[in-house]
Design goal:
homodimer, 306 residues, alpha/beta, Rossmann fold, 2 domains, 3-stranded parallel β-sheet, 11 helices, 39% helix, elongated, HAD_sf (chains A, B), CDP-alcohol_PTase-I (chains A, B)
Chain lengths: 306, 306
């Protein structure tokens, strides 16, 4: 993100509560961060059905105080950092900028092919929240931006960008983090990636698709496990197939342990460090069950309490 | 609309400020009108990023006071009566209902083919408002509902309905109104439709498309005129071609008058009532100019003042 902060001058940052995303962007080093609220404050006609609240008016910056018109401002990139709190006006403003002459506010390109890049911080169309059924997420808004752009420009295409899953770069970044963690926590050589990474997720379109793509590309193994407790609905056909389908995250962890132990149990050449397995555990593994470990703490207590 | 009020019991009404659309629906005779606010009040997890305001909480009805769960309520039809003030939550709730078992709240259909009908009160993707550039309208939200439905159901299609232009039924309704008006105002036989209707509009996709379609179907002539003061941008190729392109509404009216007068001027058989044209007016028409009328009032004063 710091790379982007160096590359782009004025950026539009979308999403989140109040000024949070502007603060985050500035903490990344972005030098000139404007928000949809700033634009609406300068020209209320931008979003005919959105009235800024008093605190939004107070916190939004006065773009006209720069001594000119909105059309003096050129947005060099758009970042959707968190879920939009007002889809209609954020969509309108993103489309205005996508249709502009090179990012210049309140202008229109003749061919609609010179807007600045638009980045979304993730890509899940659906996510599993407190509601019984999955909710629409940022990926839906991303799709909407692209679809409506095509509609209003008579068929021109807009290609926006997304960080995060299922982009392989996200998994490569995770690999680097894992290597650092293995080095600092376990004294392993930082240059060695883990032999196998078990990736547990609830969303076929991001978690499983990305893990499988990373597995194709990577020297080490990325093993996708899909759980039934989130976006994926048991009984349906996932668009991207996991290596293993289980009920819960605990089942996924048990599956990974079993699979690793089975590898060790059948490994004859003595390579790799053996785990201290007693006869009962080996028997359990051979029967496809999870061995009983003596755990001093419940590793899931924290996750459940969160 | 009264027909719908008789046909459907519980309906979801979307759009508008506060409770206005509920009031409108009830004035049409709808017997049980619920709003997205009612649903969010009963289950805040429905829209994770929307917090109802105090007045929304106060005005929204308590659906659980009916003595049960949300899943006891079956929505028989959805009406978008005015522009949505919160696209994300209205979209979520419309999609929830479109994916439900026959309109039953908080349920999911197995095949996503049993949702109740969804009606939009108009269909313009873009409209010309106070902003220099056209703004997204209800037609964009309609398209979004259909597109995102397809996305989240793995490719199932959702066909929503729209009232108003460009639906031919809207033009047929206008014809009936015109016939009544001609009868009461001018004593003409109500059974006779006007020979020619000049339809002036700014939006090729609704005004011109609809007028041309009506002209195809109708015995009388519907003549489409596109103006340059609204959605249509001068110099571009309109998706639907008008019979005449002019600058302003005044030019459209002048064009209609000229065309009618030219018809009269060249009509030799004496059929039809002649307008009292003096020599100067006839000369003006023959030169393609608009005759000067003595007008006691400025017919555009009211339109401009509005």
């Amino acid at each position: 993100m710091r790379e982007f902060a160096n590359k782009y001058g004025t950026v539009l940052v979308v999403g989140g509560e109040g000024e949070k995303c502007r603060d985050v962007a500035e903490s990344y080093g972005f030098r000139d961060v404007i928000t949809p609220g700033d634009i609406i404050k300068a020209n209320a006609a931008t979003a005919p059905f959105r009235a800024l609240t008093e605190s939004e008016i107070k916190n939004s910056r006065d773009l006209l105080a720069r001594g000119g018109k909105l059309s003096d401002i050129v947005v060099e990139a758009v970042f959707v950092f968190a879920d939009s709190r007002d889809w209609a006006s954020d969509l309108q403003i993103m489309l205005d900028i996508a249709q502009s002459k090179g990012g210049r506010l309140e202008t229109r390109s003749e061919n609609f092919d010179e807007g600045p890049p638009i980045y979304f911080s993730h890509n899940d169309v659906l996510w599993s929240a407190a509601h019984e059924h999955v909710r629409l997420g940022m990926g839906a808004l991303r799709k909407i931006v692209e679809t409506v752009f095509e509609d209003v420009t008579g068929g021109r295409k807009l290609k926006t960008h997304a960080f995060g899953k299922p982009q392989v770069s996200t998994f490569e970044f995770a690999t680097r983090l894992l290597q650092q963690w293995r080095a600092t926590q376990h004294g392993l050589a930082e240059s060695e990636p883990p032999e196998t990474v078990y990736f547990v997720g609830d969303t076929p379109e991001s978690d499983i698709k990305g893990t499988n793509a990373m597995n194709e590309k990577s020297k080490n193994e990325w093993y996708s496990i899909l759980v039934k407790t989130g976006v994926y609905q048991a009984g349906t056909e996932p668009k991207h197939k996991p290596r293993k389908l289980v009920d819960t995250v605990l089942d996924a962890v048990n599956h990974g342990i079993r699979r690793e132990m089975a590898k060790l149990g059948t490994r004859k050449d003595g390579k790799g460090r053996k785990l201290p397995l007693d006869d009962a555990a080996l028997k359990a593994i051979s029967e496809g069950r999870t061995p009983n470990f003596d755990l001093s703490v419940d590793p899931f207590a924290k996750a459940v309490a969160q």
